[in-house]
Amino acid sequence: MSKVQQIKSFLMNNSIIEHDFDNIETKYDFDLGRPKEDIAQVDRDYYPQIEQKIRKEAAFMAPHYEVFYSLEKTIKKLISETLYEAEGTDWWESTLINDEIKAKVVDRIQKELDSGLTPRSEEGIDFCTFGELGEIIKENWDLFGFLTSKKAVEKVMASLNSIRGPIAHCGVLADDEVLRLHLSVRDWFRLMD
């Protein structure tokens, strides 16, 4: 084998090993501490070209997005688990979810498929708005009686839905909206007291 072939073989083997490491990290949700060259290189090449003001706004909004994301996932998980306990694996297809919400979810899923992007989820609930999540809770109040009040659920969901816009669409929250976000998080957890 020539030197060139040996080098090509060495590079190919390294590429395969790196790919295997990527799979291990993904499968076991484990970081082997390897540098992520491709992402780091893109950041070094392109991120500095974005205006400083925009980068500062992004840094300011990042923790608020994290709070909102975590709360939304927590609420969806609570709803899913509660309805699963009541109806089993077919809870989404059951009468616990009204046909209007199901139809809107089907439309959203189709729009995502038509866009050519990777679908965000295989679960219908992940395509529901806060308003729809509130409706699911209210329509199944007998299952969610551990929450303190239907009206409070409505209020919290409405507040979260209004805050969602600037967070999801690259807006910047005003100081009072940051406070509203944190109060909404507290209000949600207070519903379970």
What does this structure look like?
With about 190 residues, this protein is mostly helical. It has 2 domains: about 1-50, no CATH class; about 50-190, no CATH class. It contains 7 helices and no strands. It has helices at about 5-25, 35-45, 50-85, 100-115, 130-140, 150-170, 175-190. Helix 3 (about 50-85) packs parallel to helix 5 and helix 5 (about 130-140) packs antiparallel against helix 6. The termini are far apart.
List the helices and strands and how they pair.
Layout: H1 3-27, H2 37-46, H3 52-87, H4 99-115, H5 130-139, H6 150-168, H7 175-190
Key attributes of the depicted protein:
about 190 residues, mainly alpha, 2 domains, about 70% helix
Low-confidence residue ranges: none
Q: What sequence of helices (H) and strands (E) makes up the elements? A: HHHHHHH
Helix count, per DSSP? Answer: 7
The radius of gyration is: 23 Å
Main β-sheet, in a few words?
none
Distance N to C terminus:
72 Å
Classify the secondary structure makeup into a structural class.
mainly alpha
Helix content: 55-70%
Strand content: under 5%
Provide a compact summary of the structure.
With about 190 residues, this protein is mainly α. About 70% of the residues lie in helices and about 0% in strands.
